[in-house]
């Protein structure tokens, strides 16, 4: 059993001394993995779907919170319900499908039925079952999750009743969800049909880090960088550009509860962004939200909501989630997320950009997966803690500045540097939250 002192040694956090280290066994130890499942993935808010995925009564989808299967449904009264996807009779998965629409979910094993409100509506051959009297009084409905809330159409659920309200949990990181949703004329986002799921043989924290890791881009994705250079020569010069007075560079904001966002400022033609290709929508957004907010909608942003959600808005837009399966195996699910009501040309551009970069068959995802597995293999070496969390630690902590002011936020930490800066202090918020939760777990075991 992992002791409290063993958990304490997983993270050495002394920024005043220029030290921030994560122990290698955090990526390999089965006991740490078990604690993460129970006290992080099944104890925090988890993204489970979009409101637009289940618009009609009886629409449903299935997913997981940590290791536990759940069924997300649009109930008969139009509200959203989320239940543990397990029959009350023998524990069979009630709904084995990814998504669909049906009023009743019937267990394949013995035929117990449940409606979209989670109510048990039928017990097969109940009258002939010679059940004891106590059976009539037992609750046989599907078990609802402890908490279920939605923010701007993104639905989150938790198995713990003690999580803070969702908006409090998201805090100022929610501003970066708004920057995507507000691009829609009707204030909604949807998934482009065609999700992809795959696994990689490495720990989930490698994906958590990668979404905040600008430093790896030029080396890991060198082939893609070469393609981008060639495209830049023949790019459409008519697309809008950043104001030439803006200082190019790369930065990050970090927030409570482990959330963080990476962003960059480039003097290129708005990166071929779908939004930049729709002048009518740009004019509407500028009138509604102002120039600074639209400027941030056009900038590259990688948002991580701890522990398992990333929203990326660059040449296309991606929502990806991950589910740890073992210390060295993780399942990734990736969607192209898009504003409802964008122009057909913007949608075409978004899909092509997604296929180009994010799709598993694209020019980036496979590069990252190989690096995760190289790291997982390397972490077995008894070579001490790595030096992978120090870029940016030589600067004094900053909590506000012109970029934060433009967005209207006061992050816990604010970093900005040259385009090749690749700061790593934006990992710290997530690791501090991870460690805090594991230390709390250590006091309970």
TrEMBL record:
Gene3D superfamilies (UniProt xref): Naphthalene 1,2-dioxygenase Alpha Subunit, Chain A, domain 1 (3.90.380.10), Rieske [2Fe-2S] iron-sulphur domain (2.102.10.10)
Signal peptide start-end: none
UniProt keyword Metal-binding present: yes
Highest taxon, organism lineage: Bacteria
Keywords recorded for this protein, A-Z: 2Fe-2S, Dioxygenase, Iron, Iron-sulfur, Metal-binding, NAD, Oxidoreductase
All residue ranges annotated as the Rieske domain in the record: 45-157
Coiled-coil positions: none
CDD domains named in the record: RHO_alpha_C_AntDO-like (cd08879)
InterPro entries: ARHD_Rieske_2Fe_2S, Rieske_2Fe-2S, Rieske_2Fe-2S_sf, Ring_hydroxy_dOase_asu_C_dom, Rng_hydr_dOase-A
UniProt family annotation: Belongs to the bacterial ring-hydroxylating dioxygenase alpha subunit family.
Protein name (Swiss-Prot/TrEMBL): Rieske domain-containing protein
